[in-house]
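Q: Can someone sanity-check these two? First one:
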Amino acid sequence: MEINYKVIGSRIRLCRAKKNITQEQLAFQINSSANYVSNIERGIKKPSLQKLVEISEVLGVTVNDFIYNSSEAVVFYNDFELSELLSVYTPEKQKTLLNSLTTIIKAIQTK
């Protein structure tokens, strides 16, 4: 099993965005640089288990939230990216798009 650090980085970025914490703020709290955090979030750097623990504590999640099923090379939109994509549409169209996406996901899951 190979760990996909891009998935882990995306999950860290998502959790950080949900907490409204900048890369600089996270870096300060884990005694690292913003560049290091950016590289982790992009999957360029492979954080140690200790750094993952520190990051998870700052973000209020578990390390498992970052690594569970990280071997799956799945490209996904996080909540923030999805919100940005939908923001150009009216609330009614957003609801239609989300309903369509839900239908597609359910159809894929039944196969």
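And here is the second, same format, sequence then tokens:
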Amino acid sequence: MAIPTYYPPRAYRTRVSTYWWLRSWPYLRFILRELSSISVAWFVLVTLLQLGALHRGPAEYARFGEWLRSPLMIAGNAVALFFLLFHAITWFNLAPKAMAVRIRGKRVPPLFITVPNYIAWLAASLFVAFVLLRG
């Protein structure tokens, strides 16, 4: 007598396109925000390269400055700056969802978390601009 073998039915899985995130603005925004991390890494790399060139002396720093003035670098840095701003803005807008701040048992309105982030960003930007432009 044959022993029956149990084969569990496979779950039905709909096929999902590789480009599923292009169909909806929230999904696209999520993917763009994740990809914008590359521009953050790019600016960190450029800053480290700049510090290395500065450490190696004036001639090397001048060559580095010429490299930064090339049209390709200017265009690449402009695109990276756009994504860096997008990354910062979306991060500040997500902060109220990530931080559940409560005072006396009530949740703080999102505006009270988001606005101080923008104020701190503006203050830091003004300080850096003051330091760089005063000379």
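A (reply): Looked at the second one. The radius of gyration is 25 Å. The chain has two domains: 21-83, 99-135.
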